[in-house]
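Lecture notes, continued. The same structure-token format from the folding unit now serves as the input rather than the output. Read the line below as a description of shape only.
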């Protein structure tokens, strides 16, 4: 019986993670800019780097992308905590509504940043698989930076190097799982934003720091993926991902 009870708890947790992940992904997908707009933004970043710094360097382009989106995320975090300044119901609004809005907007900007970086590193995000790759890098790295835990546990290296073989369907499963884990984690920390003034400062600064960390982790992952594909340009496989 104890084993059955533990199995039931694990199953309930997995179901909750999946439901939260699907809902969050659906909300984020409705907000993320279309691929053409993001491609145009990447090209604008490249032109800006050439104009102001001379030769086109990938690290400079990545820095522009990450800085832009970390600033946007910081602003969104501060705005979402503003209701905490209102007496009475403002605290409740900031705690529940603000937390959900901040989490959704944060992921919108992280996904857009990741898609821009993915395109900058040579993947055409107008194609389905490259777009899901961008979503996956954003989701996994957001969860890992927020939780301090490894999403893939001990298989992180192998999983990352195998991503160049995953199908869009498998990548989307990873996104749902990572979003679900992040949603459960973020909800447990929502009380901070309900504190007047403190909530605004914490939300803005936390979002900016988180975004920068996620951005540079995406850059590192894209570098490693590109090196892996250069040495092993095999076809994608439809493997089961838990």
């Amino acid at each position: 019986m104890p084993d059955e009870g533990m199995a039931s708890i694990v199953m309930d947790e997995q179901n909750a993670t999946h439901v939260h992940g699907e809902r969050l992904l659906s909300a984020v997908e409705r907000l993320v800019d279309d691929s053409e707009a993001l491609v145009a933004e990447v090209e604008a970043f490249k032109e800006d780097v050439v104009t102001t710094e001379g030769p086109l360097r990938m690290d400079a382009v990545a820095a522009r992308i990450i800085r832009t989106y970390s600033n946007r995320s910081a602003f969104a975090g501060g705005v979402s905590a503003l209701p905490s300044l209102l007496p009475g119901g403002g605290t409740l609004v900031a705690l529940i509504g603000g937390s959900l809005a901040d989490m959704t907007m944060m992921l919108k900007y992280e996904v857009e940043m990741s898609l821009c970086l993915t395109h900058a590193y040579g993947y055409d995000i107008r194609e389905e698989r490259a777009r899901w790759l961008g979503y996956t890098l954003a989701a996994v790295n957001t969860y890992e930076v927020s939780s301090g835990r490894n999403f893939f546990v001990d298989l992180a290296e192998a999983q990352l190097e195998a991503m160049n073989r995953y199908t869009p369907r498998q990548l989307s499963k990873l996104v749902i799982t990572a979003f679900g884990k992040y949603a459960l984690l973020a909800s447990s920390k929502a009380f901070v934003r309900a504190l007047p003034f403190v909530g605004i400062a914490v939300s803005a600064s936390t979002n900016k720091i988180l975004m920068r960390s996620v951005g540079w982790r995406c850059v590192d992952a894209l570098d490693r993926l590109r090196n892996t594909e250069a040495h092993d340009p095999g076809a994608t496989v439809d493997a089961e991902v838990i």
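Point for the exam: Helices lie at 2-31, 35-53, 58-80, 89-120, 128-147, 156-162, 168-187, 198-231.
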